[in-house]
Amino acid sequence: MSPLIDICPLDELPPGARRTIEHDDLDITVVNVGGTLYAIEDRCSHDDGPLGDGPIDAAACTIECPRHGSLFDLRTGVPKTLPAYQPVETFPVTVSGGIVRIDVD
Ligand code: FES
């Protein structure tokens, strides 16, 4: 089975937009930061906060956990500030035929 998961047409995910999907037992948020797409686990490694809902700093390429404020690097899932200290998962994003897909392999 293909590990590629369809998210949505690229037109529906313009810069500044985000979309969260469920795959198996994972929630994954895909965000468009100034035209670059990132996919990150929608669950903070500190206390399961809804990471995908957090504010994004485009210049730093981080997303902030809305629960206790840890900053995570959108590219790697590595936390840059406490209280989280374990990384969350990130997933490669591709666009093919105008469809945004993530690789969950
Ligand atoms: S749940 Fe995210 S920092 Fe605590």
From TrEMBL:
PANTHER family: 3-PHENYLPROPIONATE_CINNAMIC ACID DIOXYGENASE FERREDOXIN SUBUNIT (PTHR21496:SF23), FERREDOXIN-RELATED (PTHR21496). SUPFAM superfamilies: ISP domain. Gene3D superfamilies: Rieske [2Fe-2S] iron-sulphur domain (2.102.10.10). The keyword Secreted does not apply. This is Non-heme iron oxygenase ferredoxin subunit. It comes from Paraconexibacter antarcticus. Residues 5-102 form the Rieske domain. Keywords: 2Fe-2S, Iron, Iron-sulfur, Metal-binding.
